[in-house]
Amino acid sequence: MTHATEPDLGPLTWVKGEIDAALGRAREILERGCAGSEAAGLQFAQSHLHQVRGALDIVGLDGLTLFTDTLEQLLGAMARGEVPADAARHALALRALAMVGNYLEELADGAPDQPLRLAPRYLELAAARGQRDASAADLFH
């Protein structure tokens, strides 16, 4: 008999408030649209997301960490002008931010860590930054 190992979510409860606050700040920046200083706003949002990514890495949520890292990379590529910072990418970034928050909320409420649920949006994020070799399997490594 095999048993799936679930991460110890005790550390998540310690940092969840900070993660939620950083996600909220990134969302606010993206919702404002960063008029006149698009690159600077995207960099601030990316910085807040980097904090989230670091906390998730420490907690051991590898799939969600990769998902968040991919979103962070998209924001960076948009800020540097490597990909257009268009309305579609902004909307995708906002949906992905919401997904991170919702996923964490579900984990805190006792749902199992199932990174495959992140796969469709993960593939969208990767494609939006021009990464064509992304796979749902990435979320498990």
UniProtKB/TrEMBL annotation:
Kindly state which keywords UniProt assigns to this record, in alphabetical order.
Answer: Kinase, Transferase
Superkingdom of the source? Bacteria
Q: Report which residue ranges the record marks as coiled coil.
A: none
A biological process term (GO) from this entry: phosphorelay signal transduction system
Q: InterPro entries, from UniProt?
A: HPT_dom_sf
Under Gene Ontology molecular function, one entry of this record is:
kinase activity
User: Would you tell me the protein name for this molecule?
Assistant: CheA signal transduction histidine kinase
